[in-house]
Amino acid sequence: MANLTIALDDRLLKKARMRALEDGTSVNALLRTYLERYAGVTDSAVALMAFADLAARSLATSGPGGRAWTRDELHDRSDLR
């Protein structure tokens, strides 16, 4: 994990630390969350990227020549009774 150094006004940092403490968090956690959202890297985005990667590497197929289902087969619920 990388470290980031930023320059802030002392009063701003003090107020941010006090508010973060009241909210049960830290300035570091707040900035990390903000940057994750800003960059589009949320837990769900990471999970979706991992799933897409897994699917791309999958050797699973629907058999030789592929398989085409009819609409009736796709909506068949007879096995659920």
Descriptive notes:
The protein has 81 residues and is mostly helical. It has a domain at 7-58. Helix content is 56%, strand content 0%. The chain is elongated. The N and C termini lie far apart (52 Å). 0% of the residues are buried. The mean pLDDT is 88.
Helix content: 55-70%
**Percent of residues in β-strands:** under 5%
Sheet having the most strands: none
Helix segment tally: 4
Rg from alpha-carbon coordinates: 24 Å
User: Mean pLDDT score, rounded?
Assistant: 88
Query: Uncertain runs with pLDDT below 50, 5 residues or more?
Result: none
Our measurement of the CA-to-CA distance between the termini, rounded to an integer number of angstroms, reads: 52 Å
| Shape estimate | elongated
Overall SS class: mainly alpha
Summarize the structure.
The protein has 4 helices and no strands.
Considering the chains and any ligands shown, give keywords for the structure.
single chain, 81 residues, mainly alpha, 4 helices, 56% helix
What is the strand and helix layout of this fold?
Layout: H1 10-22, H2 27-39, H3 43-57, H4 71-74
